[in-house]
Design goal:
The complex is a heterodimer of chains A (280) and B (306). Chain A is built from 13 helices and no strands. The radius of gyration of chain A is 21 Å and the shape is globular. Chain A is an all-alpha fold and 280 residues long. Helices cover 72% and strands 0% of the residues of chain A. Chain B has helices at 44-51, 73-78, 95-105, 112-121, 135-147, 165-180, 192-198, 216-222, 266-272, 287-301; strands spanning 4-15, 18-29, 33-37, 59-64, 80-83, 153-157, 184-189, 201-206, 209-214, 224-235, 246-248, 254-262, 277-282. Chain B folds into two domains: 4-89 and 138-220, Rossmann fold (3-Layer(aba) Sandwich); 224-284, Alpha-Beta Plaits (2-Layer Sandwich), CATH 3.30.70. Chain B has ten helices and 13 strands. Helices cover 33% and strands 30% of the residues of chain B. The longest helix of chain B is centred in the middle third of the chain and has 16 residues, at 165-180. Classes of the chains: A mainly alpha (280), B alpha/beta (306). The A-B interface holds A 3-4, 6-7, 11, 102-104, 106-115, 258, 260-261, 263-264, 273, 276-277, 279-280 and B 16-19, 45, 49, 52, 54-56, 73-75, 77-78, 80, 82, 84, 86-90, 101-102, 104-107, 142, 145, 207-208, 303.
């Protein structure tokens, strides 16, 4: 299991560096930007008044943007699930099926490594890679705060990151289970991506339209904690997200242990495949 | 210890509504080299993938080195070396890095001297990146990783595919050496000369059913070969008509004649002694002809031969 964990982690090194430093750079830019906005408080307040109430409702209370928590929530954390979701879904759907579709899994699974070890090793590598990316992004915000007007503690900033981590684990796991059920990685990525975007909009729009609130309860991003997380996390929501992710992972593992490995090149749904085939 | 390395009994496998195997029965004895032959889509790779628990059959029993691969996949894989038919390797890795990873998957239980010997004998440059290798060099990587842990059982799906004739001979030699150490070799092939050179026994699969188990010599006897004879003068070839296993394309007199011969050429050579022969050529054996023979027979007998 450790060999597979190590190999999977090494394989995603480029992604870890790219995503980690990319997000850290974004954080690095946001902190001094807050300083410049906060320095001209009046103009900032006037600018906020120009936003329509719908926008304020969609992204949260923009009046709180003058606070470090509110600013980071809106300018960084609010859209982060959509950005980092790309990595989580791609990593989740590719965890097993990428090698399967490339045909490289044939050789790996012919070595003395059980399917369970392979699965667990790779999933742990995904969790680790995601953790390193978010830790690097956290550093990108926390380090420049030393020289900034943002008076937040590292642990306070870590809380929304933890919520983001839970969301990304959930969507990565969703991609993983879908990749073991649907006939191709591409389709699994597409469906997972659609669900992520739908969840983002339903959660946002439910703040404007009460009718959507019932659906929003099923939306994972409803339980994403940003601004409020700086003060303290809702543990139940966090556990709920991790729990849902765990269910997806267990289902994916159960499915992977029982199903046939695909032959390289398989993985598309074609109409003729759905029609009955004559026996030889 | 069991004298049987592979035992397959009543193996059936379907992919949705398509049935690939219809009750395959096959036994491979310990220490033998068995050539597994069949045309594309006959069920060779499906059978091999069942042996390695990559796919699960709907019915039948499999024992590999005395173990059920579904119950004990890791133990089976520890003792087995496998070369897939369509070998795909991680393109971004260097050969040395890939081999190190595969070694680690085997718990580093590898004789490094033997690994170096394999690399040298197959003239493999381990510093190169996989994606920059030719198909032949990729195949060498596949052969090295299958052999490097000196397994009890080698399951090789077309082991010399893409290799040049010299390297093919080297692989044959490596497999014979593995056999001399007590290993069992189960390989699929499309090349009759390879089967003749290497195999102790052959099994032919057709449409998901084993239709023949025999020796390579018997297989060669079954194959038709084309014989072209040129004479020094115009002759009447009718005396050649009626030799067992020989069929003439034309009985008309002439200075050359073409024949189809099944089995030994002995009778034909003896009959030709009465003619002034200038030249004689024979075409090489063809597995396709043997497969076609089974297809013809199969079609005459019905849809499935069990």
């Amino acid at each position: 299991m450790f060999v597979e964990f190590k190999h999977a982690l090494r394989s995603s090194l480029g992604q870890i560096i790219g995503w980690g430093f990319g997000l850290a750079l974004l954080g690095l830019l946001q902190v001094p930007m807050y300083d410049s906005l906060a320095a001209d408080g009046e103009a900032f307040a006037e600018m906020l008044e120009l936003f329509p109430s719908e926008v304020m409702a969609f992204f949260g209370d923009l009046s709180l943007m003058a606070t470090p928590e509110g600013y980071l929530s809106i300018e960084f954390f609010s859209y982060m699930p959509l950005i980092l979701g790309i990595f989580a879904i791609q990593a989740g759907t590719g965890l097993l099926v990428k090698d399967e579709e490339m045909g490289t899994l044939d050789l790996i699974i012919a070595h003395p490594v059980s399917r369970l070890s392979l699965f667990v090793g790779r999933f742990l590598a995904f969790l680790c890679a995601l953790g390193v990316i978010l830790f690097t992004a956290w550093l990108g915000i926390v380090l420049p705060m030393e020289w900034s007007m943002m008076s937040l503690k590292g642990v306070e900033v870590a809380r929304p990151f933890l919520s983001l981590y839970a969301e990304m684990v959930l969507f990565g796991s969703l991609g993983l289970i879908l990749s073991t059920i649907l006939p191709s990685r591409r389709l699994a990525s597409m469906v997972s991506g659609l669900l992520l975007v739908a969840s983002f909009f339903i959660t946002g729009l439910s703040q404007l339209n009460e009718d959507l609130e019932i659906i929003a309860w099923l939306s994972p991003l409803k339980y994403y904690q940003t601004q409020e997380a700086f003060a303290g996390l809702n543990g139940e929501w966090l556990i709920g997200l991790f729990g849902a992710g765990l269910v997806f992972v267990l289902l994916a593992g159960w499915r992977f242990l029982r199903r046939d490995l695909r032959v390289a090149g398989e993985g598309g749904w074609k109409l003729k495949d759905l029609l009955p085939t004559k026996r030889q | 210890m069991s004298e049987i390395s592979i035992m397959i009994k009543g193996l059936e496998k379907s992919y949705g509504s398509f049935q690939a195997l219809f009750g395959v029965d096959l036994t491979v004895r310990k220490g033998e080299i068995l050539g597994f032959l069949g045309p594309n889509g006959a069920g060779k790779t499906t059978t091999i993938r069942c042996l390695l628990d990559q796919i699960r059959p709907q019915a039948g029993e499999i024992q590999v080195l005395g173990l059920d691969p579904q119950q004990h996949p890791v133990q089976v894989q520890r003792k087995t070396g496998y070369l897939p038919g369509e070998l795909r390797l991680e393109g971004s890795l260097e050969v040395s890095r890939l081999l190190r990873y595969l070694k680690e998957l085997r718990g580093n239980r590898i004789d490094e001297d033997y690994l170096r010997e394999l690399i040298e004998r197959l003239e493999l440059d381990t510093s190169r990146t996989i994606k920059n290798l030719s198909s032949g060099n990729k195949q060498k990587v596949g052969v090295v990783q299958a052999l490097m842990h000196q397994p009890e059982l080698l399951i090789l799906d077309e082991p010399t595919s893409g290799l040049d004739p010299l390297m093919q001979q080297e692989v044959y030699q490596l497999l014979r050496e593995a056999q001399s150490r007590g290993a069992t070799v189960f390989f699929s092939s499309h090349i009759l000369s390879e089967v003749e050179t290497l195999a102790d026994r052959v099994a032919i699969i057709r449409k998901g059913v084993i239709v023949e188990r025999s020796s390579p010599a018997k297989l060669m006897d079954m194959s038709m070969r084309q014989v072209n004879i040129r004479f020094l003068e115009i002759v009447d070839p009718s005396p050649l008509h009626g030799i067992p296993g020989v069929s003439l394309e034309s009985l008309a007199p002439g200075d050359q004649v073409s024949l189809q011969v099944e089995g030994s050429l002995d009778q034909l050579i003896k009959a030709l002694a009465q003619f002034p022969v200038k030249d004689l050529s024979t075409s090489s054996h063809s597995l396709e002809e043997i497969f076609l023979k089974y297809y013809r027979e199969g079609n005459q007998e019905g849809s499935h031969v069990r």
